[in-house]
Every structure is written in C-alpha cells, then in structure tokens.
Amino acid sequence: MFYEGINLNIVSDIRKASVVTHKGHFSASEIVATVILSKALNKIFLCRSNSNNYPDSNSSTLIIIDSNFTSTEGNIKKRDNNIAYGCAGIIWKEYGPKILSESCNSNFVFNYIDSTLIQTLDSFEQNHFIDCPLPCDINMIIENFNNLRDKDSNDWAFIEAANFADTIFSNFLINAENIAKQLNVLSEDPSAFRKLLLKADNGLLILENFLPIERLIKKSTLPLAKELIFLIYPYSNGFIISNLRENSFTFCNTLKLAVTYAKCKKVDYLVP
After folding, report:
1. Three-class SS state of 47
2. What is the pLDDT of residues 227-262, one digit of tens each?
3. Which residues of the chain form beta strands (DSSP E)?
4. Burial class (CB within 10 angstroms; exposed 0-12, middle 13-18, buried 19+) of 254
5. Of 207, 199, 201, which Cα lies nearest the Cα of 183?
6. I need a labelling partner for 191 at 20 to 30 A (CA). Which of 42, 66, 80, 177 fits?
7. DSSP 3-state of 60
C-alpha cells in the first residue's frame, strides 16, 4: 500500500491547482510535504507560484506548502518536545492518518515516522538542529537538487527531488510498518515475548534488529521482564542503549562499546 509512487502534475495556472508552493529554492521539508500529499490524495496538481498571496489565489481548499506559510497550519505551533512544526510536520499531522488507514498499528507508525524523519526535516528547515543519532542527510541531498535548475525554471529539479524523496519516504513507511507488525506479534503472543526475554543475560538484553520493546517490557508481569535493566538494539549507524530504570537512552557507535557501557552502568542498580 506504500508503493504507489509520486502522483504529481505541475500546472502553470493556479486556478487549476489543488496544491501551491513558491517558485525558486525549495527545502527538503517542502519536498517531503509534497510527497505526503501525493500519497494521501488520489492526484495533486501543483502550481509553483511567484505570488505569496496564496489565500486570494484560489478557494479555501487550496493546500499551501511554504516554509513561511501553510494553509493547514491552524493553531499548531510546537510539539510536546518543543520542536516546531514545519511544512512536512504540518502536512504529516493532517494527512498521515489517511495514509496509514490500513496500517496494523497506525499510532506507532505515525509517531515513528514523525520522530525519525519528519522532526529532523522540520528542525533543519527552521535552523533548529536536534541531537539525533539518525543522520538525516536527506536535507543536504535535496538541497543540492536546487543546483540543477536552469535560469528560467527549476520545476524539473523540483520533480526530480520529489521522486527521490518519494523513494526515501516509502522506505521509511515500509520499515515502520514491519516494526509495528513485529511489536504486535510480541504483544499478542506471550510465548514469543517470553522466548525473546530468555535471551537476556544478567539484566541485559541485546536484540539483533531495531525493535523498541520498552513499553512491552514495562507492562509485562513476567519476572524476566522485571529483572531487565538495559536493552540494546541497532539504530542507524550504531546502537541504542535503553535504560529501563531511568527511561533514558544513550547512543554508541559499536556494540562492544554499548555492552561495556551497560555493564559499567549496571553497577549503580545492584543492591549492596
């Protein structure tokens, strides 16, 4: 359900447009917002306008993608973690649920995409850089598409950037859905969850794949779950160390370093 690809038509007449954005330089957040709309709507007709007077350009149903103004923004300003909504965040918040209507766990997938991709795009767009172990190079890659434009128009560069972003975004969706399915299996099958917990050694559980099971562990009444102190799993180009006692995270570049850190830190929780 996430393979449809970009469904975008560029139109020059704003009266024929369902989506409008500005001419010239575009950001990664604006491009990904366009991709999200292409997946949520059957087809979008996008006008790249020289005018910033969007509300007067068409009906109130016109969707605007602009880092300085978005028609769907409403009263949304910042997330609970104080990261402001940019173009991608605003569009994802409104249209993401429609894309995920057939997801096995839409709430998890929505938050996963927002925290790993969308927030980084929004932060970069607003020059608010966040400490995130996932290097979202998509910002700089899409930025370089602006250099492909000719002196008259960069519509071709915009479409090429959108096609590129569509592949990235689709992969994020597919990966998030796969993780959600694994979490559902563990949540619905106590024997599978117990089998996973049996892999723990002295309060430390190391997973082979990215699988954030912290909530399942905390909700579980199994003694094996109660004994766990640290959870380690791959993430981006390193490993996440999840401290189950403090609800905190640490990032290490290698598994060896992650295990060493956890074993040293574990001493703090041992009863004398």
Report:
1. strand
2. 898 999 987 678 889 998 888 888 887 888 888 878
3. 8-11, 19-22, 44-49, 63-65, 204-206, 230-235, 238-243, 248-252
4. exposed
5. 207
6. 177
7. coil
Using CA atoms, how far residue 155 sits from 10, 134, 195, in Å, is 8, 30, 54
Domain final position from 133, 154, 183 = 183
The answer on 163 and 72 residing in a single domain is yes
Sole residue written with tokens 């007449």: 13
pTM: 0.75
Domain-ending residue, one of 183, 198, 221: 183
Query: Is-contact 154 24, C-beta < 8 A?
Result: yes
Task: Specify the number of domains making up the chain.
Answer: 2
Q: How far apart are CA 20 and CA 18, in angstroms?
A: 7
Instruction: Give, rounded to a whole angstrom, the gap between the first and last alpha carbons of the chain.
Output: 54
| CA dihedral sign, ordered 173, 176, 182, 184 | negative
